[in-house]
Structure formats: structure tokens, C-alpha cells
Amino acid sequence: MTPTKPRDVQIAEIGTDTTVLRSRTWERLKFEIEYARQKGTTANSYLIEADSIALIDPPGESFTDIFLEELGQHAYYQRLNYIILSHINPNRIATLKRLLEAAPYATIICSKPGVNTLRSVLANQSFDRPSPREDEAHDLGIEFGTDRILKVHVVRDEETLDLGNGHVLQFRFVPTPRHPDALCTFDRGTGILYTDKLFGSHVCDDAVFDEHWKTLADDRKYYFDCLYAAQSTQVEAILLKIAEFPTRIYAPAHGSIVRHSRSVLTLDYQSWCEQQQKKDLSVALLYTSAYGNTATLARAIEKGITQSGVNVRSIDCEFTEPEEITTAVQACDGFIIGS
């Protein structure tokens, strides 16, 4: 039996002042259906080192230790100004807590739907522990105060953040029922659009970019079917939003960075959404999920129904207006409720 490669963090430059840290596992990471092709995955985080320094999307707790060790080799924690969270989930919180102990003066950036979750989870977080490399911070002229408090900035749709050196970040709110707090972030300086879950795939390999994108076709379609087939209406709206950006590269949360097949993959997403809308039968899948367990079941149900040729509209009732729920139920051929 061939031994499995150990988990690691792959580092690569993807643009001016911009580095990707790809936390990699060569085995199936979780039991959710989206990982069922068992090709491993990457959790992609991005570091922009301009006049101000921003970290986009630290990975989940499966990679906490190796990620923080590698990040510490490439950036001073004490100079980290912003931690941008494209979406918030309990898995990512574990890494975030550890990161804030090392970089207690960084400001967290997230959307309004995500801030309540964030505050409730981190309300009792203590920042009394000394930050690693505090002596180095003093050598850099960084002085620590006595008030280490959680700093969160809730961004508005289309708001911008100037990091300096031409790196002006613009945020777009891109919610779906699965990720009602989702953000995309566009860097005007590099033309990179940080797409979070969009345009990803669960494949682990050594290729940072998508040079061999044709070999990823089946994995990309499977990923779309698992995450977005039941949310095609919202995805179509998102595609229109992000089309406004002069994007050169998609930087997703998982898989290879999309440089060579960006136009093709965008057209694929549009086509897959249209195919969902043309299906004769439709089902509304209504759920709420306080701890994520019901959402996991809902995604498995989505996948099964979609494979049978039925259009599924997934609705997280916690973040959906009653009128929209009523309209969806009236328009469908059947509905499923879970909580």
C-alpha cells in the first residue's frame, strides 16, 4: 500500500505583493458529499503584503498548526492589519482564535450576516497571552498597548479598502442559502478576484495554476452540482455582479487558481445554471441549521434530487424573507422541510 503524503502548506507568488498559502491534504478531508471523489483538497489562503497587510481566508482547524507555522515564516504576525473572512463557519473559527492570539491588533473584515456569528463565538476570547515574537515586534517599532480587544469591521456592498501600493480591494456581497454571509473581494492592483467557494474544486496536486484545466472538467462539474446546483438562481445573480470587474485571475478557496480557463469556467457556470432552470420538475428544499448538521443533510438531499433530473431550490429560512419562501413554495412541484 502506497503511503499517503503528509499534509503540508504550499507557498507560491500569484501576483505583485501577493502570495497563496495552499494547505493541502491528499486524502478525503471530510465526509460531506462534496469530497466524495476522494482526490484530496486544498484550503487556499491569500496574503497581500502592501503598505498594509491583509490575510484572506485562514483555513479550517484541520490545518491550523501547519498553516500558522508557515505563515509565521512569511509575515510578522504583528504587522498583520486585516483578516478578511469571505464566509464564517465553525471550522474556520478554530484557526481564527489561534491567529488572533498571535496578531491581536488585526481587524477582522466580514459581511453583516457573518458578524453576529463571529461576535457570539469570540465574545469571551482572551488576548492576555503574549503574542509570539513580541520581541521582534518591538525591534520593528511596533508597540503593544494594554487594550487587546476584538476589532471587527462590517463591510458594505461595493465598499473599498486601500492597502497601498495600488492594492485597492473592493468587496461584493454574494450570498447563497448555503453561505448567506459570502463575500467576493477584487484587488484592482492585480486583477485578482478572491471568489471564496465559487470556481473551486476538491483536487490536491502540485499545480498552483490551472495549466491542465481540461483534466479538471469532471471535478469542477461535480463541485458545482454539490454546492450550487440547488442555488442556481443566486449564482446567476452573482455572476452578473462579478462580471463588472476587469478580472484576470480567479482565486478560489479550494483547488487550483484559475488563470488559463477563467472565461471557459465562467461560461460553464452560466450554462450549468441555465440547465437547472430548464428542468421540468422543481422542488423547494426549506431548512434551518443552527449548528450546521441539518445543512449537511440538506446538501446530500440536494445532490440526490439533482442527479434524478429535478431542479432543486435550496432555501435557508433563517436568512430568507417570508414572502420569498411563499413564492418559492407556490412555484414548485413539491417541497421538503428540515430543521
Provide structural commentary:
The chain is an alpha/beta fold and 339 residues long. It folds into 2 domains: 266 residues, Metallo-beta-lactamase, Chain A; 59 residues, Rossmann fold (3-Layer(aba) Sandwich). The chain is built from 9 helices and 15 strands. The longest helix is centred in the C-terminal third of the chain and has 16 residues. About 6% of the residues have low confidence.
- Find the CATH superfamily of the largest domain: Ribonuclease Z/Hydroxyacylglutathione hydrolase-like
CATH structural architecture of the largest domain = 4-Layer Sandwich
Order of helices and strands: EEEEHEHEHHEEEEEHHEHEHEHE
Q: How many distinct folded domains?
A: 2
Spatial ordering of strands, largest sheet: 1-2-3-4-5-6-7
SS-derived structural category: alpha/beta
Q: Mind summarizing the main beta sheet?
A: 7 strands, mixed
How far apart, in Å, are the first and last alpha carbons?
Answer: 42 Å
Poorly predicted sequence stretches spanning 5 or more consecutive residues = 127-134, 136-147
How many helices? The count is: 9
Number of strands: 15
- Beta-strand residue fraction: 15-25%
From the 3D structure, determine the CATH topology of the largest domain. Metallo-beta-lactamase, Chain A
- State mean pLDDT (0 to 100 scale): 85
Rg is 20 Å
Helical content class: 25-40%
Per the principal axes of the C-alpha atoms, what is the gross shape?
globular
Assigned CATH class of the largest domain? Alpha Beta
Protein name: Flavin oxidoreductase
Pfam families: ODP
Keywords: Electron transport, Oxidoreductase, Transport
Cofactor: Fe cation
